[in-house]
Specification:
Structural class: alpha/beta
Radius of gyration: 22 Å
Number of domains: 2
Largest sheet: 7 strands, mixed
Shape: globular
CATH class of the largest domain: Alpha Beta
CATH architecture of the largest domain: 3-Layer(aba) Sandwich
Bound molecules: pyridoxal-5'-phosphate
């Protein structure tokens, strides 16, 4: 089946709207993706037809809702190639998934243990580990980055030792779009017996991760960056770790038996899923993954690579424009500045022209400090973006540059 961009864009109702009297050009996909009608319909169908609490009712609606929720878990299991569906936990998103693991490890770590993160991390993958170190006396170490946005892998090898207990790296950097060599990072960590958490929030809309092939211990993502709704995400937890880590929150759903003397916990995944979850969100997450697979990850890659190389080439023709993150292994994210113009000023003018980009630090202040800049303008493309939209961006940046210099 050929890639029919016109038909794909029809799936996204929001792409028809205007912003400031101009057609919307949505290039902030790294912050959140737009939602196709198929996912919107799934949400409406849930609340219109079978809204009920799950895993508890004997009645038909509860059964239907439970079946749909568990089917979505199965969809995620197959998509990420997990060995068991109970290794897939529903969470509120990447941030909560990371905090769940950090909270579990606070009971396992001791003074002098070491945790490694990369210089490219999102704040959500830095702060929970700093908090964990404060609680446990563990030490946080950082893999430094190179000018082109890659990690210094030889420095990583030197940081690893018998005290290393955990390594946390993102699959793809949200600020620069660089794809990290996670297979190698995981292999080397395992050689010293450390566990690895990969933050896939930025990767999962571009790449289909295979958790068994990666042999990763934890892999996390958010539905809203994959054409799904906000407020729901995933934690893949390798079975052995699911048995080792203590529960995250106490409450209904996560118990086997409760008496005032002692409570025993449910098996995975319920052990980690206290309370009524985001039922509709979980079901819609499954629908979003089905939608992405119906387009196909090969087709998505091809379209996004074409947009990335065309946009890079066109933008670089603008005088004084500098792109941050220039390594060859990258996805469709372009972080840039023009001369000394503040990114916020460019972003504001682009918005007046209907173009949505992100400006600022992108929750990655250490990267901005590394480059010695206040932030960047970040244009991030999805498979539903077009060459014409790249042209609109380039023309608008030219206009903004003229107005501001
Ligand atoms: C978006 C993002 C996060 C945070 O995801 P939330 O959905 O806000 O929890 C973490 N890491 C990376 C790399 C991201 O792109």
């Amino acid at each position: 089946m050929s890639f029919d961009i016109k038909k794909i864009r029809e799936d996204f109702p929001i792409l028809k709207r205007k912003v400031n009297n101009a057609p919307l050009v949505y290039l902030d996909n790294a912050a959140t993706s737009q939602k196709p009608q198929q996912v919107i319909d799934c949400i409406v169908a849930y609340y219109s037809n079978y809204n009920a609490n799950i895993h508890r009712g004997v009645h038909s609606l509860s059964q239907e809702a439970t079946d749909a929720y568990e089917k979505a878990r199965k969809t995620l299991q197959l998509h990420f190639n997990a060995a068991h569906s109970h290794e897939i936990l529903f969470t509120a998103g990447t941030t909560e998934s990371i905090n769940l693991v950090a909270s579990g490890f606070s009971e396992l770590l001791k003074t002098g243990d070491e945790i490694i993160v990369s210089a490219l991390e999102h704040h959500s993958n830095i702060v929970p580990w700093q908090m964990l170190c404060e609680r446990t006396g563990a030490i946080l170490k950082v893999i430094p980055m190179n000018e082109d946005g890659t990690l210094q892998m030889d420095r990583y090898s030197n940081l690893l030792n018998d005290n290393t207990k955990l390594v946390f790296v993102n699959h793809i950097s949200n600020a620069l779009g660089i794809i990290n060599p996670i297979k190698k990072i995981i292999e080397q960590a395992h050689q010293v017996g450390a566990a690895v958490l990969i933050d896939g929030a930025q990767a999962c809309s571009h790449i289909k991760a295979d958790v068994q092939a990666l042999d990763v211990d934890f892999y996390v993502t958010s539905a809203h960056k994959m054409c799904g709704p906000t407020g729901v995400g995933m934690l893949y937890i390798k079975e052995a770790w699911g048995k080792t880590l203590p529960p995250y929150q106490g409450g209904g759903e996560m118990i086997a038996t409760v008496t005032f003397e002692k409570t025993t916990y449910a098996e995975m995944p319920h052990k980690f899923e206290a309370g009524t979850p985001n039922i509709c969100g979980g079901i819609a997450f499954g629908a979003a993954v089905d939608y992405l697979n119906s387009i196909g990850f090969d087709a998505i890659k091809k379209q996004e690579e074409a947009l990335l190389s065309y946009a890079t080439e066109q933008l670089l023709q603008i005088d004084g424009l500098k792109i941050y993150g220039t390594a060859s292994e990258k996805t469709s994210v372009i972080s840039f500045n023009v001369s000394e113009i503040h990114p916020y000023d460019i972003g504001t003018i682009l918005d007046k022209l209907g173009i949505a980009v992100r400006t600022g630090q992108h929750c990655t202040q250490p990267i901005m400090d590394f480059y010695g800049i206040p932030g960047t303008v970040r244009a991030s493309f999805a498979f539903y973006n077009t060459k014409e939209e790249v042209d609109a961006l380039v023309n608008a940046v030219k206009r903004a540059t003229m107005m501001l210099s």
